[in-house]
Amino acid sequence: MRLPAVLVLLVLMATPAHSTPRIVGGVPVDDVAEAPWVVALTTTSGAQFCGGALLGPTQVVTAAHCVQGREPASITVVGGRLDLRTDVGVTTAGASYRLVDGYVTPSRGKDIALLTLAEPLPYQPLPVADPGVHMPGTVGVVYGWGRQAEHDTNKSPLLHKAFVPIWADGQCAATYARYDAQSMFCAGYPDGGIDACIDDSGGPYVVNGRLAGIVSWGIGCARPNAPGVYTRVTTYLTPKPQTTSPTDIVRNTAAHTASSAVVTPGRFNRPATREAASTIINSHTAASPRNTTASMAS
Ligand code: 4AZ
């Protein structure tokens, strides 16, 4: 069917410039109760640079590339806020973080970090999915405040979400030579149009209300035949049993309080203290370690 030129023009004129896709191709989240565990990572002056998800009151999971090279205390974690122009919700600072041994860059995998918070955030944590979750065709939801188009520098102050299906590992590997099925999965549409983008990194990919992935990398955003690549969370975190007995809490208290996940043994480095965590992470960076708190001097 051919439309008269004048009708095409009218339709184009009626389409506001900002109806261009968001997250890319997503929709705003309009009820904070839908995603109470989503957090924004911002600078201390409030500039959002990544997302994350609460695993427990003082524990956030995000991408390694979101935190590496930053002082933990320079990361502000914002919970309970959909619109970053408001001061709704609760903020706290990072206290320490842990990376997986051997993390280098997102495209080489292991792009996951556990960020411990200075103060607890009063929001429901996100449970971790079971290892079988990454079945090709499974549709998950990705959340973020990132760009709404690859070259869009005006990113949204509103949290957006998009539904994207998981691809078979073979298809991911056919697209990305660096694809590593142990550390990653990929999700998207052959025609593009819906995807995570810059500054969505670290944000959760959720299947049936459980954390299955973390926004990590990809070639551009929402391009045809270039799915987004996500960290395969189940390689690094194990779901915590739903029935929490007192012994469970005791067993997990050393690393984190009442978390919804258990760190898979041997995956994460294990600094014993906040001070050691800062030291190990700082040693990954070019900058010389700086003391952020008096207690670090010891
Ligand atoms: C980024 O640079 C980035 N389309 C995040 C996600 C994707 C690409 C790039 C996936 O933070």
What does this structure look like?
It is a single chain. The protein is 12% helix and 26% strand. The chain has 298 residues and is an alpha+beta fold. The strands form three sheets. It has a seven-stranded antiparallel beta sheet, with no helix packed on it. The chain has two domains: 134 residues, Beta Barrel (Thrombin, subunit H); 108 residues, Trypsin-like serine proteases (Thrombin, subunit H). A hairpin with a 2-residue loop joins strand 3 and strand 4. The N terminus and C terminus are likely disordered. Bound molecules: 4-(aminomethyl)benzoic acid (4AZ).
Number of helices: 5
Taken together, the total number of domains comes to 2
Radius of gyration: 20 Å
Largest β sheet strand count, sense and barrel closure: 7 strands, antiparallel
Ligand list: 4-(aminomethyl)benzoic acid
Assembly annotation: single chain
The backbone outline, from C-alpha atoms, is globular
Query: Average pLDDT, to the nearest integer?
Result: 83
Low-confidence stretches: 1-21, 246-257, 272-298
> What percent of the residues sit in helical stretches (DSSP H or I)?
10-25%
Number of strands: 15
Largest beta sheet: strand ordering: 1-9-8-11-12-13-10
CATH overall fold name of the largest domain: Thrombin, subunit H
Query: Going by CATH, what is the homologous superfamily of the largest domain?
Result: Trypsin-like serine proteases
CATH architectural name of the largest domain: Beta Barrel
Q: How far apart are the termini? A: 75 Å
Query: Structural class from helices and strands?
Result: alpha+beta
CATH class of the largest domain: Mainly Beta
How much of the sequence is in beta strands?
25-35%
